[in-house]
Every structure is written in C-alpha cells, then in structure tokens.
Write a structure and sequence with these properties.
Blueprint: E1 3-7, H1 8-14, H2 18-31, E2 38-39, H3 46-53, H4 57-70, E3 73-76, E4 79-82, H5 85-91, E5 103-111, H6 117-145, H7 152-165, H8 187-193, H9 199-211, E6 215-227, H10 233-239, E7 244-248, E8 257-258, H11 261-274, E9 277-290, E10 297-304
Parallel strand pairs: 6-8
Antiparallel strand pairs: 1-5, 2-4, 3-4, 5-10, 6-9, 7-9
Helix pairs in contact: 2-4, 3-4, 6-7, 8-9
Length: 311
C-alpha cells in the first residue's frame, strides 16, 4: 500500500498520549505491508519487520507488545492480526455516534513513506487549525446573516468577505470575546492537543517541530510595562485586558520576550533590588506555517457500524 487512511477522531485521540502515538506509528507502518492486515509467522520475522520499521529488534518487540496490550492488534497461532479502523473507535473509547447508530469521522490519506511521530503531530495540528477556521466561518456567517441555513450565494458572498478579514485580529463578532479571525493555534492549544498542561510545553513542541523543518513558528511577546508589585496589575488590565503577567528572575527570562533597551535597564535594576519582577506583555505574533507537504488528502467521511450491529 502506498498510503494509509487515518480517521480524524482516531488521530486526535492518539497524539494526546506519547506512548499510544509510538504504538500507532508501528500499527500504520505494518498496515502498509499487506491489504489483508495479517502477518504470518510473526515470531520468525521480528528481525525483518524491525528493519522495515527502522528500529532495533528489542524496541520493535516492545512496540509490538504495546500494540497487543492496547488492542491495536492481536496474536493467534503465530499470526498477527491488525485491528480494523472501525475497531479502533472502540479500543480508544471514541463513542460519538449519529442517529442511525453509525460512527462518522472524516478520513485523511497519508503517504506510507511519511509515517512517523513528528509528521502525525504536524498533521494533527493542520487538522486542528482547519477545524478552528471552519468553526470561525460558521460563526462569521451566522453573525453576518443571522441564519444557519445553507445558501450558496450568501456563503460565497460572506466567505470572500471573511477571507479579506482573516488576518485582521482586531475584528471580532460583536460582543463575542472569542471571535477573532485568527485560526492559528496558541501555545496553550498546542499543549492541550498533545496532552500537556502548560503553555510552555506547547511552545517547546512547536520549537522542536520547527527544528525538524516541518513548520515555521513565530512567537513574539512585546513587553509593555515592568512593575515590582503584583497589586498594580489590575490597573493595567483595565487599560488593556489582553495583557499577560509573568514573574521573572535573572535566570528565567523567556527568550521570546522583546524589550526595548530602556526597559531592559529598568528590569536589571529591579532584579538587583528585589530579585524578581513582574512583566506585563502582549502576544503580537503567534503564527504557524506548515512547511512540509505531507501529501495528505481528505477523502470523505467514513461510516462505521458499531460492534454487534455490523452486517
């Protein structure tokens, strides 16, 4: 097989767990070997399959055991049976269903030679960015027309208007706080996508993917004010509620903070006196561009019968 089909819902569930992601990569690589998704004489072919997946024999055995433990495969009489896509929904506890009892999920094609952990992470980020943009288009259409009904003429009219405003982060939907036309993932959103809690983890993941040459990541925070007491924060937030506050010391000043020369001198003076300071800053650029062409293609919606109802 030259490509594999990956359901959106499965991919989003898998990337949130590092160990599950490693096992899923092996699952996809083995799946490209045969259409029947069965591998005979698995015990005698460990060395061959380890070389095919690009790892040593011991690591491959560990990943193979993970596949079986997680329910992505089963072994009977020396034969390895890889789970079908529809079974993954139950193994991973993805239970959203339509009214007729079927599971529905969009599916994407990925070239077999592109299957690895980092590419799956980038693919998940691309899908998440598209989902944000689709949701914004829907909200934008509703805000402009007051209707959710499909009308091709109105859609074309207002979506062209949407595209002209897309990069204008100052535009919002009336009183809606989250209506900014900016489909880029925040560092917090990246962290949440990959099962992390802190925004710093999301920043580190984005930087790691950038070093791999898969994305370009621009994150700039402009320092507006330096204060020595936390009590002054509310005064500045009344002026600009989007300001962020960071407590810093001489050892932990984030590299993506941008300060003027006078601000840096003022910060050094406060740090010498108190040992720490509070910085009020604002994100002015948080942009992700996907550099690598993964040859991915959305191929439609898969309709999967639940277990026990399959014909």
């Amino acid at each position: 097989m030259k490509y594999v089909k990956i359901p959106f819902a499965v991919l989003m569930k898998v990337v949130a767990d590092a160990q599950l992601l490693k096992a899923y990569v092996i699952y996809l690589k083995l799946k490209t070997l045969y259409k029947e998704q069965t591998i005979h004489n698995i015990k005698g072919r460990i060395k061959e399959l380890a070389r095919f997946t690009g790892m040593c024999e011991n690591t491959f055995r560990t990943r193979l055991n993970q596949l079986i433990d997680l329910g992505l495969a089963r072994k009977e009489n020396g034969i390895l049976f890889l789970a079908d896509n529809y079974k993954l929904f139950y193994v991973l506890n993805i239970l959203h269903k339509s009214r007729n009892g079927k599971i529905r999920s969009k599916t994407i094609k990925l070239a077999a030679r592109k299957i690895n952990e980092h590419n799956l992470m980038v693919l998940a980020m691309k899908i998440k960015t598209q989902q944000i943009e689709w949701r914004q288009k829907k909200n934008f259409f509703y805000h402009m027309t007051g209707s959710c009904k499909t009308n091709k003429r109105l859609y074309n009219r207002y979506y062209s208007y949407y595209n002209s405003l897309k990069n204008n982060t100052c535009y919002n939907f009336g009183s809606c706080d989250k209506g900014f036309l900016d489909a880029n993932l925040s560092v917090g959103g990246i962290a949440k996508l990959f099962g992390k809690k802190s925004a710093k983890s999301g920043h580190n993941i984005a930087r790691r993917l950038e070093k791999k040459g898969l994305i370009t990541y621009q994150h700039r925070e402009i320092v507006y004010e330096i204060i020595s007491e936390r009590a002054n924060l509310e005064f500045f937030r009344e002026i600009d509620p989007t300001l962020r506050m960071k407590k810093v010391s001489a050892d932990n000043i984030p590299p993506f903070l941008h300060m003027k020369r006078k601000q840096r001198k003022s910060l050094d003076k406060i740090l010498k006196t108190n040992g720490f300071a509070y910085l009020l800053s604002k994100v002015v650029t948080n942009h992700i561009t996907f550099k690598m062409d993964l040859e991915d293609k959305i191929v439609g919606i898969s309709r999967v019968f639940p277990l026990g109802i399959e014909n």
